[in-house]
Design brief:
This protein is an alpha+beta fold. Helices cover about 20% and strands about 30% of the residues. The chain is built from 15 helices and 43 strands. The protein is elongated and about 130 Å long.
Length: about 900
């Protein structure tokens, strides 16, 4: 593998809670076979840090330090100790400090634990007992020194017991949704800690333990652990075979295909011939003093840093350095430069920013914090750099690792008014979301279950914010955020769109004052002045109340004489889609466009009338949103010749007498035309056999198969669409037929009644009985011929009709009716009708047995019982819906 590919694989590390994985894209111009081979190689070398199997970022990090504490480090009696000055603790302090500084002022959380090992392993700090932060890092470092002192070090470097203990800690103390990170530090090769024969025997088992079906390599991946191995060069006297087997274990555990120079696997084991996909890294250090930068870089990676370029960089003889194109600084939390090898920059002046318009000073866009081995660049709020800029150094950055961390996910809300284009805005509850420019908002991509959708699709299909993911392409190089910056869609807002009004007889601002011509004789009232406003409820998914009652503030002034009083009392009516409404309020609920208007009228005696005032339409949504339209009303109407009053009266009486029967007939025809059963395509029907009664305490009882109806959970499959027309619809065993007022009772209420059944109770019902029309929801209780299982109760068939969409629709609408007071009142009315022998709805009218008397009612509705028996025990709620 080339150094460039090795650097790419080592650069790909995860942000703790918010960063995304790198998925380099192959060139579309390559041959198909080459592309497939490249993708297969990349899938094996890419790291999947802090992501679960579904590719979702894990919110919390559990970092376990697996620390070698054997005598080879700095035991006074050891011939060549690798860390006589305990420099490893200084390096670990640097890692903790780097993590604490990197996650400061963020929501990231890093739990810490410590396991030390030599001939055996021991948990020194339980995982989660310490939490790394900017304020706790130094204290955790001191505790590590206390828990792993040089005094008491033991012989052996038993990797088997070390990894067994570490995996056990993750299994017991780290939840599956946490990001699990193992930092494994060691300075030697495998040694059992006992006799040389023990070491030889266990060394022979090590390949199977590493690569077997249940070996360390597979367990690491099953538990989704990301291991980082920091390895000091061992003594040159170590046996070559021991080195190879030990390095092979580290390679298999991490999946690092290109081990550092000097740590190659010289004699691969047969069982370890295949290296599993990369999940970690192996770092090398020449001596303990060189450890610090490696721990700092791990701290940056664990804190969310993604590699910008090969890690570490190799100049290859080039002078200077220029990074790949980078995201706009407003989308970066920080950029770090850690010098793993080589010397830090002598001066910050060697760093600059390169854009398409030329070079700019680095300090114009970033604040810089500097330490012995690294630089931390933090964007300043005044930076106006857009994506595509480069970080440039006049000096080569050999041996450095450059990482950048994206900002935490930003959030937007999406709104739509009627048929107008959807609007995307930064979420006001997410302050950093204000970083998004108008151009950013227009470039956001939306997904519904991984399928790309447009922002308009969010309202055309039935989705909720939890179904939607979004991203913004901020990284031109694809190294830091190849999948884009995560954008949370926190909510949808749908509002009706109320457009302008068009006047015809009523003036709106800027319109010419209209004049209406002569009034016609013989009319009951003279109508004029229709103003129409457009209202778009498409996608609004809510009802809208229209109120024009303030139009009554219009007053008129007429010429002196018999018609002046008629002019001073104008009347108004609401007109919706050309249909006059009763009164001045109405509810709009269908997903469509409406034309809403107002019509004024004066009495037929008016002959010279000027109207002036203000006309207002108020629109109120169910969620409390309101909008009003106002327009002045100035109308001048005249009739040149006053009518002959006596002639008008005579003609009117004659007309009324001649048209009486015709009017009654027309009223019946109109009633038949204007009142019909709801469209069966907009309803669902639900039917349930129940048993009802009333306890002595007055409590209403309604059960199905021994279970209280309020505890039954209806299912969607229980809802059936009715079939029928405007005169009759049927669903389940229910059949409703329309009844219009009779010829000589034209003003009685139209209603719907169950066909060929009596003793039926309706909600809502008319004063003459039957179901009031029109209706959006209906509840019907009908007698049942089935004998009740409980002799104290009465068998009833319950039918519910609910709308398919809108407020109170679907299963939720059924549940709301079953839990409502109207259902209980209907049961009481049904039972009262059965107990009343004179009631026209008495149950004996359909041939069913009469209700039980007070002597055998078992305490139900018993008025004279001296002591009511205890109610039966409450049955458990069934797991599923009732059988149909």
């Amino acid at each position: 593998m080339t150094p460039s590919l090795r650097g790419c694989s080592k650069a790909i590390v995860a942000a703790i809670a918010l960063a995304t994985l790198l998925f380099p894209q192959s060139s579309a111009a390559r041959e198909v076979k080459e592309v497939e081979k490249k993708l297969e190689t990349e899938a094996e070398t890419q790291l999947r840090i802090c992501l679960n199997q579904q590719g979702q970022t894990k919110p919390v990090v559990d970092l376990l330090l697996l620390l070698d504490n054997s005598t080879s480090l700095n035991k006074a009696t050891f011939m060549n100790p690798t860390d006589p000055n305990e420099t490893r603790f200084v390096a670990i302090d640097g890692m903790l400090d780097a993590i604490g500084r990197a996650i400061k002022d963020t929501e990231a959380s890093v739990n810490f634990g410590l396991v030390t090992f030599a001939d055996y392993a021991e948990v020194k700090i339980p995982l989660g007992e310490e939490t790394i932060s900017d304020s706790t890092a130094s204290g955790i470092g001191r505790r590590i020194r206390d828990e792993a002192p040089s005094k008491g070090q033991r012989n052996g470097t038993n990797f088997i017991k070390a990894l067994d203990t570490a995996l056990g800690v993750f299994k017991e103390d780290s939840p599956p949704d946490h990001c699990r990170v193992l930092v494994w530090f060691t300075d030697g090769m495998f040694a059992h800690g006992g006799s040389s024969e023990d070491t030889k025997r266990e060394l022979g088992r090590l390949p199977d333990l590493a690569c077997g079906s249940g070996g360390f390599a597979k367990q690491i991946r099953d538990l989704e652990i990301n291991p980082f191995v920091i390895l000091l060069k061992p003594s040159d006297t170590a046996q070559t075979n021991t080195k190879s087997i030990s390095y092979e274990l580290m390679q298999q555990v991490t999946g690092d295909r290109t081990m550092p120079a000097g740590f190659e696997v010289t004699n691969p084991s047969a069982v370890c011939s295949k290296i599993l996909p990369a999940v970690g890294e192996v770092y090398d250090a020449d001596n303990a003093a060189a450890l610090a930068p490696y721990f700092v870089d791990i701290g940056r990676a664990v804190s969310g840093g993604q590699a910008i370029d090969d890690c570490p960089l190799s100049a290859g003889g080039a002078i200077g350095y220029s990074s790949p194109r980078l995201p706009a600084p407003r989308f970066l939390s920080w950029i770090s430069i850690v010098f793993l090898k080589g010397r830090p920059l002598s001066s910050l002046q060697s760093l600059s920013v390169s854009t398409s318009t030329g070079a700019q000073p680095l300090l114009s866009h970033f604040e810089v914090a500097r330490s012995d081995s690294d630089l931390l660049l933090t964007p300043i709020s005044t930076s106006r750099l857009e994506k595509g800029w480069k970080l440039v150094s006049q000096d080569a950055l050999d041996g450095a690792c450059l990482r950048a961390k994206l900002v935490e996910p930003l959030a937007v809300t999406v709104s739509k008014q009627g048929g107008a284009p959807a609007t995307v805005r930064p979420d006001p509850n997410s302050p950093r979301s204000s970083l998004l420019t108008d151009n950013d908002l227009s470039e956001i991509q939306y997904f519904n279950r991984r399928s790309t959708i447009s922002v308009e699709d969010l309202f055309a299909i039935d989705v909720s914010p939890s179904d939607v993911t979004a991203k913004l392409d901020v990284d031109p190089s694809g190294r830091i955020a190849p999948k884009g910056l995560e954008i949370a869609v926190t909510g949808f807002s749908t509002e009706p769109q109320v457009g302008d009004c068009v006047a015809n007889g009523v003036q709106v601002p800027g319109a010419q004052v209209p004049r209406v011509g002569e009034l016609e004789r013989g009319k009951d009232r003279h109508e004029f002045g229709s103003t129409t406003c457009s209202v778009d409820l498409r996608f609004a998914k809510k009802e809208l109340l229209v109120d024009a009652s303030s139009v009554l503030s219009i007053i008129g002034s007429g010429a002196t004489g018999q018609g002046s009083q008629e002019c001073r009392s104008p009347e108004a009516r609401l007109v919706i889609d050309g249909v006059k409404q009763d009164g001045l309020t109405s509810t709009l609920s269908e997903d469509k466009e409406y034309l809403v208007g107002i019509q004024l009228s004066v009495g037929n005696k008016a002959f010279d009338c000027d109207l002036a005032g203000t006309f207002t339409l108020s629109f109120s949504g169910l969620d409390g949103t309101q909008k009003s339209l106002q327009a002045p009303v100035i109308v001048d109407i005249k009739r040149d010749v006053p009518p002959d009053i006596l002639l008008a009266i005579f003609v009117s009486l004659a007309a009324v007498a001649a048209a009486a029967l015709l009017s009654l007939f027309l009223l019946r025809v109109l009633n038949a035309v204007m009142t019909s059963l709801p469209d069966d395509s907009k309803l669902y029907g639900y039917e349930l056999p129940i048993e009802v009664g009333v306890r002595d305490t007055g409590q209403v009882v309604a059960i199905h198969n021994g279970v209280d109806v309020s505890k039954i959970s209806p299912q969607v499959k229980d809802l059936r669409p009715p079939k029928g027309d405007k005169n009759e619809i049927g669903v389940h065993t229910l059949k409703l037929r329309r009844r219009v007022p009779g010829l000589f009772r034209p003003f009685s209420e139209p209603r719907a009644e169950v066909v060929n059944e009596t003793g039926v109770v309706y909600r809502q019902r008319t004063s003459q009985g039957g179901l009031a029309m029109p209706f959006r929801q209906a509840l019907v209780l009908r007698p049942s011929r089935d004998a009740p299982k409980d002799p104290e109760l009465t068998s009833v068939t319950l039918n519910i009709l609910i709308p398919r969409s809108g407020n109170g629709s679907g299963v939720a609408g059924v549940v709301k009716l079953l839990e409502g007071q109207s259902f209980k009142e209907a049961i009481r009315e049904y039972l009262d009708g059965r107990r009343s022998p004179t009631s026209p709805e008495h149950e004996t009218a359909v041939g069913l047995p009469p209700a039980p008397s007070s002597e055998n009612s078992g305490g139900l509705a018993k008025q004279s019982s001296s002591q009511a028996p205890k109610p039966p025990p409450r049955p458990p709620r069934p797991a599923g819906p009732p059988p149909r």
